[in-house]
């Protein structure tokens, strides 16, 4: 029996420069029958018009779609944030797109995805922050952790652009640092057993205590 | 006895559930006090904005803001600015403007008059964009263009038609991608970091306050452009607005939505047919 607070309900992944290669690897190796929803926010060029998602879908082990507004979240699906729209998860477990102003100069913004998913899934959320050359996602990861979820980052030393995972580490918003191979292992293990603590056993390096309560500094 | 328990009922409720009640009460207060109905808006986005507003104004909790919404007009005005998202640009999604030019303009040309309604026009960039293309197609002179929003501050900016010059380079690029025939610079005067849209484009433009959640039909339209507005509404409010648009369009009139908006799941879907999926252009069909 898995304790409710240890049971994974959803995965959120964010990344920017250098993260596409990681996503290709993760989606190719993702178990086809993994019965979790995965939300992905990758910084894209405004002119993308669905091409990156279509490309990733071709090689993905799991069903991968560009997220639609008000779509009900279905486990076993990877939802990709479209260019020029923020992707949010509602507490009712439906998706919402918004054309609000950019956050951290980005739309879609990883903070927006992580913060809304953290409110929707609480301790059931596992969030992964990948390579990137800006600090989007760090505050979102802090929120994930404050809401009881699990905050993971790609090892900055293996990331083509270490700034993004490093910013999260600097905010003390991270539970564990993982290699890309360890992330794939994590998804495979979650396929067999939804316990987050079991899936993380022996993977990566654990980090210190979370930042004190009171919210991240703006 | 339960009533005498040392822990009063409700104390064990977690903080986020309490915040949900506070948010409900805030939206209820806004609606009953000011008539703006944010209860039917996409929740996660409203929640995010309210949280940011609460933090930036130094409130300890949403309930403290609710008191001010009831009694402090100025604070309420600030909050509406935060809750209504007026982000826009000229020729946003150029391929949509190209599709309007290619698929819709020829039909507009076959009609003696052309009434266009931009619903949720924000600060007006989209309105001037379409006006330019109508002008280049020789359709402007027979057109009457209504541009509406419920945000009066945004309407003020739209009416003035004065924008930051720094964005014009990007806009010029989008204008070309939309199939613009001249140079964007022909349509404005630049002065000290800002640009003023040409008076010729304003001649047939009317800006007016209109609330899509409350107000009704105000004319027979040939083309309605409502982009990136309905995305903020829940399905029920979307249905109301789609019916309003169907009632406002002449038979064969066009509706253009934002690139992530859809009328497929709406109860008004049968009153429209799809013209261009990617550009989200629909056409009003006869009621059966
Ligand atoms: C993101 S802007 C879209 C601007 C432009 N149409 C575009 O696509 O670039 C959304 C606009 O919808 C307006 N809006 C939101 N709710 C409304 C309502 N109930 N009635 C009228 N306008 C509304 C907002 O004030 C805002 O200006």
Describe this structure in words.
The complex is a heterodimer of chains A (218) and B (288). Chain A is globular, with a radius of gyration of 15 Å. Residues 214-218 of chain A have low confidence and may be disordered. The longest helix of chain A has 13 residues, at 180-192. In chain A, strand 1 (10-15), helix 1 (19-29) and strand 2 form a beta-alpha-beta unit. Chain A has a single domain (4-206), classed as Rossmann fold, CATH 3.40.50.180. Helices cover 31% and strands 19% of the residues of chain A. Chain A is α/β, with parallel strands linked by helices. In chain A, the strands form two sheets. In chain A, strands 3-4-2-1-7-8-9-10 form an eight-stranded mixed β-sheet. Chain A has a two-stranded antiparallel sheet with strand order 5-6. Chain B has 288 residues and is α/β, with parallel strands linked by helices. Chain B is 42% helix and 18% strand. Chain B has ten helices and ten strands. Chain B has helices spanning 15-34, 43-56, 62-71, 73-83, 94-109, 125-136, 152-160, 168-177, 199-202, 235-248, and strands at residues 114-119, 143-149, 162-164, 188-191, 194-197, 205-209, 221-226, 249-257, 272-276, 281-284. A seven-stranded mixed β-sheet of chain B has the order 6-2-1-7-8-10-9. Chain B has a three-stranded antiparallel β-sheet with strand order 3-5-4. The longest helix of chain B is centred in the N-terminal third of the chain and has 20 residues, at 15-34. Chain B starts with 14 loop residues before the first helix and ends with a strand. Residues 1-8 of chain B have low confidence and may be disordered. Chain A binds chain B through residues 68-70, 82, 85-86, 88-92, 96-101, 112, 115-116, 119-120, 122, 147, 215, 218, and chain B through 16, 20, 42-45, 47-49, 55, 85, 87, 228, 231-232, 235, 258, 260-262, 265. The complex binds S-adenosylmethionine. S-adenosylmethionine binds next to loops of chain B.
């Amino acid at each position: 029996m898995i304790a409710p607070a240890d049971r994974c309900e959803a995965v959120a992944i964010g990344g920017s420069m250098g993260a596409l290669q990681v996503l290709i690897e993760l989606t190719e190796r993702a178990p086809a029958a993994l019965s979790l929803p995965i939300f992905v926010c990758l910084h894209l060029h405004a002119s993308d018009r669905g091409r990156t998602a279509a490309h990733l879908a071709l090689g993905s082990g799991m069903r991968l779609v560009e997220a639609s507004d008000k779509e009900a979240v279905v486990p076993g699906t990877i939802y990709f944030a479209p260019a020029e729209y923020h992707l949010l998860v509602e507490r009712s477990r439906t998706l919402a797109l918004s054309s609000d102003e950019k956050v951290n100069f980005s739309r879609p913004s990883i903070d927006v995805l992580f913060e809304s998913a953290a409110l929707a899934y609480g301790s059931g959320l596992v969030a992964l922050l990948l390579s990137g050359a800006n600090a989007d996602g760090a505050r979102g990861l802090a929120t994930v952790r404050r809401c009881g979820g699990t905050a993971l980052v790609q090892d900055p030393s293996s990331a083509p652009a270490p700034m993004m995972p490093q910013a999260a580490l600097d905010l003390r918003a991270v539970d564990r640092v993982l290699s890309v191979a360890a992330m794939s292992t994590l998804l495979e293990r979650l396929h067999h057993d939804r316990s987050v603590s079991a899936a993380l056993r022996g993977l990566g390096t654990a980090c210190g205590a979370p930042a004190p309560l009171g919210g991240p500094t703006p | 006895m339960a009533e005498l328990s040392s822990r009063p009922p409700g104390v064990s409720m977690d903080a986020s559930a309490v915040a949900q009640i506070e948010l409900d009460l805030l939206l209820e207060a806004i609606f009953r006090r000011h008539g703006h109905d944010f209860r039917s808006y996409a929740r996660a986005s409203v929640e995010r904005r309210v949280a940011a507003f609460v933090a930036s104004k130094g409130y300890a909790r949403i309930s403290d803001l609710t008191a001010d919404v009831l009694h402090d007009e100025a604070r309420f005005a600030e909050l509406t600015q935060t809750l209504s998202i007026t982000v826009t640009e000229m020729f946003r999604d150029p391929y949509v403007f190209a599709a309007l030019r290619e698929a819709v303009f020829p039909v507009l040309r076959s009609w003696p008059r052309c009434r266009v309604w931009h619903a949720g026009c924000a600060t007006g960039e989209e309105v001037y964009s379409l006006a330019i293309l109508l002008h280049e197609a020789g359709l402007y002179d027979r057109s009457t263009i209504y541009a509406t929003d419920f945000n009066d501050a945004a309407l003020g900016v739209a009416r003035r038609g004065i924008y930051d010059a720094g964005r014009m380079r990007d806009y010029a690029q989008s204008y070309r991608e939309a199939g613009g025939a001249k140079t964007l610079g022909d349509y404005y005067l630049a002065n000290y970091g800002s640009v003023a849209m040409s008076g010729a484009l304003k001649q047939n433009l009317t800006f007016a306050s209109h609330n899509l959640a409350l107000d009704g039909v105000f004319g027979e339209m040939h083309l309605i452009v409502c982009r990136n507005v309905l995305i903020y509404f829940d399905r029920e409010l979307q249905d109301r607005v789609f019916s309003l648009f169907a009632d406002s369009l002449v038979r064969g009139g066009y509706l253009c939505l934002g690139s992530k908006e859809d009328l497929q799941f709406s109860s008004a879907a049968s009153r429209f047919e799809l013209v261009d999926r990617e550009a989200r252009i629909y056409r009003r069909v006869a009621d059966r």
